[in-house]
Known about the structure:
Blueprint: E1 2-5, E2 11-18, E3 22-28, E4 31-37, E5 43-51, E6 55-56, H1 60-67, E7 79-91, E8 94-103, E9 106-116, E10 120-121, E11 127-138, E12 157-171, H2 173-177
Amino acid sequence: MNWNLDSSHTTVAFAVKHMGFFTVRGQFKKVAGTVLTDEQGAPSKIEVSIDAASIETGDAQRDTHLRSPDFLDAEQYPVIRFESSQIEALGQNKYKIHGQLTIRNTARPVVFEAEVSPAIKDPWGMTRTGATASGVINRKDWGLTWNQVLEFGALLVGEEVRFEIEVEAVAAQSEVAA
């Protein structure tokens, strides 16, 4: 079955250490994508596009810096992409999702752990499913190397980026009608 991400009910959130002790949290506000599932409802293919300029951390000056060439360079590289390459069933609706994450035209392998909810019918007759996923990347692997070493040795911006992803997907209408 083909599913489309419901962008108003999908969150791609991240967390990064600031000055070695404080965690800055943010999210990307514009996310689109599709999921293909097999006959049993298990995900078999995932493709996601994220508008790099939609990054928000609650601080306009920081957000502008994150969109700049020092980090995402959203003007030059407007889309962040994820495409799964392998999805391993772990049991109890849990999966290990392997794929390629492309940031600034650099594609690197990543792994996310996910838990998928059973499909339901919503009050409007649409078939929906949801998932929660998490993973960690090192931003330097994608050339996001801007930083400053502070007087006591900590980095101004941590290199490890933790992701927490909440997805709601709607079955494509052609799939429901079939």
